[in-house]
Specification:
Blueprint (H helix, E strand, L loop, with lengths): L4 E11 L4 E6 L12 E5 L6 E11 L2 E6 L4 H5 L5 E5 L13 H4 L3 E4 L3 E11 L4 E7 L7 E6 L5 E5 L4 E4 L6
């Protein structure tokens, strides 16, 4: 089942007096956070609310973002909130590229070793993404694999079946 809403970032703090939010982005590009885009803000204990982006710009390792109608006081209540978007408002990823949220939870199988676990999270390293694969089964309980997101390692991704096939290099 395709998810309609998915998380593009998390509010980590506020900046300045005009209600700018510091955002840790999960998107590959700042262009994703274009002016006029409607986002859903999900805060613990509150109903989801929709806000429209006025401005977004790079800031250190994240993004500074301002929503329409949100002042400094209101912005402070957003810290820790998830920022979600309707995927139908975004362009589809290129061939052999995927939204991170679609990859989280996939079962990972190595050609030689067999089932390794499921993708728990993804780390951005600069040169390539790294899939954090955890296994909670008896034999490999709490075993964690760090798998580079390289074409030479990731052999196939089947979102319909919820599977990723890899060919781990020796020693990994």
């Amino acid at each position: 089942m395709e998810k309609t809403l998915f998380t593009l970032g998390v509010v980590t703090g506020v900046h300045g007096l005009k209600g700018f939010l510091k955002v840790r982005s999960f998107a590959g590009s700042l262009e994703t956070f274009k002016s006029g885009l409607e986002m859903v803000v999900r805060r613990s204990g509150k109903a989801d609310e929709c806000y429209t982006i006025l401005k977004a710009s790079p800031h250190k390792k994240g993004i500074l973002m301002q929503f329409s109608g949100v002042d400094r006081d209101a912005a402070e209540t957003f810290v820790g909130a998830e920022l979600l978007v309707d995927r139908r408002l975004l362009p589809e990823p290129e061939d052999d590229a995927y939204f991170w949220e679609d990859l989280i939870g996939l079962k990972v199988t190595d050609r030689t070793l067999g089932f390794l676990g499921t993708i728990d999270s993804i780390m951005e390293t600069g040169s390539n993404d790294v899939f954090v694969v955890k296994n909670k089964d008896k034999g490999l309980k709490n075993k964690e694999f760090l798998i580079p997101g390289l074409a030479s390692v990731v052999i196939g991704v089947d979102l319909e079946r919820g599977e990723m096939t890899v060919d781990l290099p020796e020693g990994l």
